[in-house]
Design brief:
The chain is α/β, with parallel strands linked by helices and 305 residues long. Helix content is 28%, strand content 28%. It contains eight helices and 14 strands. Helix 1 crosses helix 8 and helix 2 packs parallel to helix 3. The chain starts with 5 loop residues before the first strand and ends with a helix.
Length: 305
């Protein structure tokens, strides 16, 4: 990667992460104006010469999701569908919008993951770099170059600093089992399986736990935390089974609705999340430890072909 051949822009959803990525690259963020008209429409104006450059645009699809997505689409359109003539436009989307809608369950539902991918293609994207999609198979919807990154290296590095002699990993459901197994192998600790029954959309009852957790410290691994309803159910069940200190680690801190109140009341000792989503001040409670994935994205840019 030649420094003078790339330009790095940031949207409004996660400028702190964009600045960290720029610092890792010994680069600076390029200038773009992004604002909203009184009727809510988004305005974008690229203020620098991108002719012949590889352009990277950092934008998480976090809350408010639709506004974040529209901002991303308009930025891509401004770069590719005008007379700016960049060599290539790469969207860095740490948190992909509508990431959980990669399959339909009921007749009449929209496959929204695919719709977002189609919109990105229409807007002019050349490549997407994202992190920890909900299901890795969903990459098939990208009809353009794509690269999925993983937060595991930085989370694993953080967890290895803890005393793991009394630690086990609990996989909260079938979907989290593959990642939980990877962490268990990497940390060389046992894995315990939990089987749940969903009570509501964001709440679950643990039916059975297979493995010893009495007197053990526990790490729960997942790809995201949203309302924390499912997590609250898992934590209660393993605490009832005699677990000692409980830790939770995930990539995406969505933290919507009652999540923060649930976490405040929870016996979880520490919640480890990454900065794929920029947390507002009121969500940065003492239990939450934020670790950065900026180096991972910076390396991806350095090695981008």
């Amino acid at each position: 990667m030649k420094k003078n051949n790339i330009m790095l822009f940031s949207g409004t959803t996660n400028e702190p992460l964009a600045k960290k990525i720029a610092a890792e690259l010994n680069h600076k963020l390029s200038k773009v104006t992004i604002r909203h008209f009184s009727d809510g429409e988004t305005y974008v104006n690229v203020e620098e010469n991108v002719n012949g450059k590889k352009v990277y645009f950092v934008q998480s699809g976090s809350y408010p999701t639709n506004e974040s997505l529209m901002e991303l689409l308009i930025m891509l359109h401004a770069l590719k569908k005008t007379n700016l003539h960049p060599k290539k436009v790469i969207a860095i989307v740490p948190f992909y919008p509508y990431r959980r809608m990669e399959k339909t369950v009921e007749v009449g539902e929209s496959l929204t993951f695919e719709l977002v991918a189609d919109l990105l293609k229409t807007a002019g994207i050349d490549k997407i770099i994202c992190m920890d999609l909900h299901k890795h198979r969903s990459k098939r919807f990208f009809k353009f170059q794509r690269k999925e990154l993983f937060a595991m290296p930085v989370i694993e590095e953080y967890l290895k600093k803890k005393d793991l002699t009394n630690m086990v990993i609990v996989a909260p459901d079938k979907g989290s089992m593959p990642e939980s197994k990877k962490y268990a192998r990497a940390l060389n600790i046992p894995i315990v399986k939990a089987y749940k029954k969903r009570k509501k959309h964001d709440e679950a009852i643990i039916k059975k736990i297979v493995g010893e957790i009495n007197g053990k410290d526990v790490i729960i691994i997942d790809d995201e935390i949203n309302t924390a309803g499912t997590l609250a159910g898992v934590v209660k069940a393993i605490k009832d089974k005699g677990a000692r200190d409980i830790y939770f680690a995930c990539t995406h801190a969505v933290l919507s609705g009652p999540a923060i109140e649930r976490l405040k009341q929870s016996p979880i000792k520490e919640i480890i999340v990454t900065d794929t989503i920029n947390l507002s001040l009121e969500k940065k409670i003492d239990k939450i430890k934020i670790i950065s994935v900026a180096k991972i994205f910076a390396e991806a840019i350095k090695n981008d072909r």
